[in-house]
Amino acid sequence: MIWFILRRAGAASIVLFLASVMIFLGIRALPGDPAVAMAGEEATPEAVAAIRAQYGLDQPLPVQYADYVTQTLTGNLGRSTQDKLPVADILAQRLPVTLELAAIAIVIAVTIGLLAGIVAAVQSGRFFDYVANAIGLVGLSVPHFWLGLLAILLFSVTLRWLPASGYVPFSEDPAGNLQRMLLPAVVLGTGFAAALMRQTRSAMLGALTADYVRTARSKGLSERKVVAVHALRNSLTTVVTVLGLQLGVLISGAVVTEQIFVIPGFGKLTVDAVLTRNYPVIQAVVLVVVVGYVLINLLVDIAYAALNPRIRFGGGADG
Amino acid sequence: MTGARTAPNGDGPLLDITGLAVDFDTEDGVVHAVKGVDLSLGAGEILALCGESGCGKSVTAMSIPGLLPRGARISGSVKLEGRELTTLPARALRDVRGKEISMVFQEPMTSLNPSFTVGYQLGEVLRRHEGMSRGQARARSVELLDLVGIPAPDRRIKEYPHQLSGGMRQRVMIAIAVACSPKVLIADEPTTALDVTIQAGVLDVFRDLRDRLGTAIILITHDLSVVADIADRAIVMYAGRAVEQAPVTELFARPRHPYTMGLMKALPAAVTAAGVGERPRLAEIPGMVPTPMTDPDECAFQPRCPRAEPDCTASRPILEKAVSESPADGHTVACFHPLEGEGR
Amino acid sequence: MAEQVVERPAAPVSPGERGRLWRRFRRRPMPMTGLVLVVAFLVLALAGPMLTRDPSAQDYNAIMMPSSGAHPLGTDDLGRDALARIASGARISLQAGLLSTLLALTVGIPIGLVAGFYRRWLDPVVMRLVDVVLAFPFLVFAVGLAAILGPSLRGVVLALSFIQLPQVIRITRGEVLAAREMDYVAAAIADGSTDGHILARYILPNCAGPLIVQATVAIPIAIIGEATLSFLGLGVQPPTPSWGVMLTTAQQYLDQAPWLAIWPGVMIALATLGFNLLGDGLRDVLDPRSGT
Fold first, then answer.
1. Cβ pairs bridging A and C (under 8 Å)
2. Domain containing A164 — which CATH number?
3. Cα–Cα distance between C36 and C38 in angstroms, integer?
4. FRET partner for B127 with CA separation of 20 to 30 A, picked from A144, B66, B175, B278?
5. With an 8 Å Cβ cutoff, are A153 and C254 in contact?
């Protein structure tokens, strides 16, 4: 198990290294003078010179890269060209908002997706299965942002149950925070729940016809135990895999959802940064996403191994 | 061993199956997998159900404890000590499974759950039916693994299936099956996936269990060498029906049905004596097994039969007492032109 | 990286088998619904703009009018006909979906073929790069490209095709590895056929089934991707009538003109649903070993 984690961590570091090179080169592939681009179009020549010196843009590329890595690792991500605040501070302020949104969305999605997938598999070919499949397909086919618009149209404009947008920090008003986060989280979690439902159903269908499930039935176990213990345990690896694969979708979805519900999170920061060509922020945002993505995938791999005794204990008596 | 011994209560055989038929609804129509099988099993008896794949022997076995997949329609009667199982409510049937009737399947590689330890999967059945605590189940599990010949059982119990060899896994399956001292053990091709040497060891475990615990065993196999090795009595099935039934020594000495004869000709000569040998393939009878979609009123084997006469297509032969000069009774055959018991 | 669920190889489809596959496909209601939706989408995208009004014509006498005889789906904030803009938007969606998928196939298939066929040093390098690309979520590419190229349909198509590349390469490579083990490929190698001939004649046809399935999965993702980027202002720019752009406008007038928010979304959902249903059906038929 230790070796497995080390191997995976090694592979993840290679990916991170290559990704950091790509981000580094990406900024330098910008048309025109990167110093001007990073300082902003209306920046003074002094500001441009300061950026050039700060990023060492007159140095050879390898030196620049080494410098970039050192700066990044010490938490210096540069300053935003809009409000001149340190990018690290902006991230520290924005990230928790998005993480809360994503966490609520994942909890909702896993609860609904897993349960619906299990029931659909057990009831395969019957009414619930058809309904769950239909809803799942629609859920996959509807883009986040339209779902968000419809939700606002229904719950805020027509029914006036929930505020359309706005954000209150959890520390100031927990109830108000959750009330405003609920709708965006449901919107964000829908596609995820649909994907999870379909994958869980398919994995459970496979598990329910497996020989070991027949064995469990032949032991006289209750159907609930056969499904919830024997079949589900072997389907959980699928759930974990889907979690990993859906992460990118979740990140994109968070960006869109924050834009619609005007939540001052990481995603809104990203879009605003691109629209204002705020390159230091763009660079940092991309880096954060890639690092987060690689780390979470690493966790997914470890969870995958923890669920699978074959990996946990290495090879068996007969390989 | 002659015929079915009676159950301890004396009312009849331990397990009594009459007119069992199983249909499956599939996308392509109704498949008649089993078309009417009568079978009885005495206490402590080892009965072999044999025939080519697709003859309905596995479906027959699975229908006894009600383990057929959804979409299967079952008719006829399955009685365990006089109690009808086919109409039993699901809950009551689950009390029978693993306790009074238990099963061992063909694929030891996939029949154990890869995510749980051997001890958990063995203890599960004890806790379910014997109301044991985890500690009691653990202690009993070690004994059971020892019983089926697994060395160092207290260590093995903590291992996962992938850490065991195929033969070991099949012994674990048998330990699970006999954990609650069932009256009937159904073993579906239990040795087919195993090497010949390991096969003999597993068969010894079955024989030993019958001798020590008095468990009656239904052994499903396509392998006549296994039948010769271990069974007391055998039923040969073809296209969803029994075509011949006899004590094993009688069957091997005087096969009556041309199909049984065909199966035996596919066997190496040494097998009947030694019980082991090269595993024969049964596909050496020319022709194809008829489709299970239709069921014409004729002998199903006649298209492949060297002894077929015009009357074989006129109606279907039923299982009747064979005309035999031998003292061994209970030899029945479904054929209009059976062999005259000349042996082989 | 998490284990990807890679499609298992499907048996090559012989012409004689095609009729049987079609009958199996036709009997299922869901894929047929998908086929109808996809065909309707194609007709709308290809013929629609010719049959409707000028999508850019502004009419200040008919601003944000609900559905009427002259404007079946109403008009937007500049008095433009919503139906005409829907039809033109279908064209943008189709372009984004088809071009990005075709680009990914054009680039990915040769890479996958070569990596799988020659193995050696090339294969691990390609697969490691695939891992790196997979480490970037889609939006990062889109954001990066929008930052470099400026927001445009071109940037959207490039970003969308880039994220499809890893799957195309993996599937093609997997099929090549499987096909290499086949007797007929071994025989062709023994015959002294050229590598190019073996790849084109024997191995490429094997990849067709899984790649078609992959394309039907990728196209709806691309359609949603284009709409999403355009909605955020990172893709197609106004006044070009993309469905995403239309929804950006709709969001501003949610109180006054809710119908503007309905139709573009319904179109996106139907087009995507159509491809998803079709894809599920094709997978069942062409690639029965992989689950849904």
1. 154
2. 1.10.3720.10
3. 6
4. B66
5. yes
B115 Cβ neighbours under 8 A, 6+ residues apart: A233, A234, A307, A308, A309, B160
Q: Which helix (H) or strand (E) covers residue B186, if one does?
A: strand B184-188
Distance from CA of B72 to the nearest CA of A (A): 15
Could you count the other beta carbons within 10 Å of the beta carbon of residue A284? Answer: 23
Look at residue A51 and tell me if it is in a domain.
Answer: yes
| DSSP letter (8 states) at residue B313 | G
Nearest to C220 among A141, A279, A293 (CB): A141
Token output for B316: 């279907």
Q: Are B249 and B235 a contacting pair, CB within 8 Å? A: no
C285 by DSSP, 3-state: which?
Answer: helix
Query: What is the ipTM metric for this complex?
Result: 0.82
Whether C187 is covered by a domain: the verdict is: yes
Check CB contact under 8 Å for A290 and C140. Answer: yes
Are A62 and A101 found together in one domain? Answer: no
- Cα–Cα dist A101/A244, whole Å: 17
Cβ of residue A314 closer than 8 Å to a chain B Cβ: no
Q: What pTM does this model have?
A: 0.77
Interface test with A, best of B94, B158, B178 (most A CBs within 10 A): B94
Q: Two tokens at A40?
A: 């902003």
- Within-domain flag for C17: no
Structure tokens at A238: 């699928």
Q: Which chain A residues have a beta carbon less than 8 Å from that of C233?
A: 271, 275
Which residues pair with residue A256 across a beta bridge?
A: none
Would you say B141 and B119 are in contact if contact means Cβ atoms under 8 Å apart? yes
Mean pLDDT by 10 residues, chain C (292 residues): 37 59 71 86 80 72 70 71 81 89 91 83 80 72 74 85 87 82 77 78 80 85 87 83 85 79 86 87 66 36
* Separation of alpha carbons B177 and B68, rounded Å: 18
- Kindly list the partner chains of chain A, i.e. chains with 3 or more CB atom pairs below 8 Å: B, C
Q: Distance between CA atoms of B109 and B107, rounded to whole angstroms? A: 5
Contact C131 A15 (CB under 8 A): yes
Query: A150 and A243: one domain?
Result: yes
Question: SS3 for B204?
Answer: helix
Q: Measure the CA–CA gap between C290 and C292, rounded to whole angstroms.
A: 7
**A203 contacts on C by Cβ (under 8 Å):** 291
Closest residue in A to B112 (Cα–Cα): A212
| Number of separate domains in chain A | 2
CA distance A119 to chain B (A): 16
pLDDT, averaged in runs of 10, over chain B (344 residues): 45 85 83 88 92 86 88 89 89 91 87 90 92 91 90 91 89 91 91 83 88 91 88 91 90 88 70 44 60 79 84 83 61 85 52
What are B's interface residues with A at a Cβ cutoff of 8 A? 65, 67, 69, 90, 94-99, 102-103, 105, 107, 110-116, 121, 124-125, 128-129, 160, 162-166, 168, 173, 176
In a domain, C7, yes or no: no
Residue closest to A79 by CA, chosen among A40, A108, A116: A40
- Beta-carbon contacts of C149 under 8 Å, excluding residues fewer than 6 positions away, are C155, C158
Contact B165 A313 (CB under 8 A): no
Nearest to A214 among B95, B105, B162 (CB): B105
Q: Which of B226, B213, B225 is nearest to B178 (CA)?
A: B213
Residues A22 and A109 both lie in one domain:
no
User: Which residue, among A316, C55, A74, has the nearest Cα to B165 in the 3D structure?
Assistant: A316
Q: Are residues A28 and A169 in the same domain?
A: no
Alpha helix ranges (H) inside A55-141: 61-73, 87-122, 127-141
Q: How far is A141 from chain C (nearest CA, A)?
A: 5
Distance CA C159, CA C138 (A): 7
Selecting from A145, A289, A300 the residue whose C-beta is nearest the C-beta of C247 gives A145
Stretch (H or E) spanning B77: strand B72-80
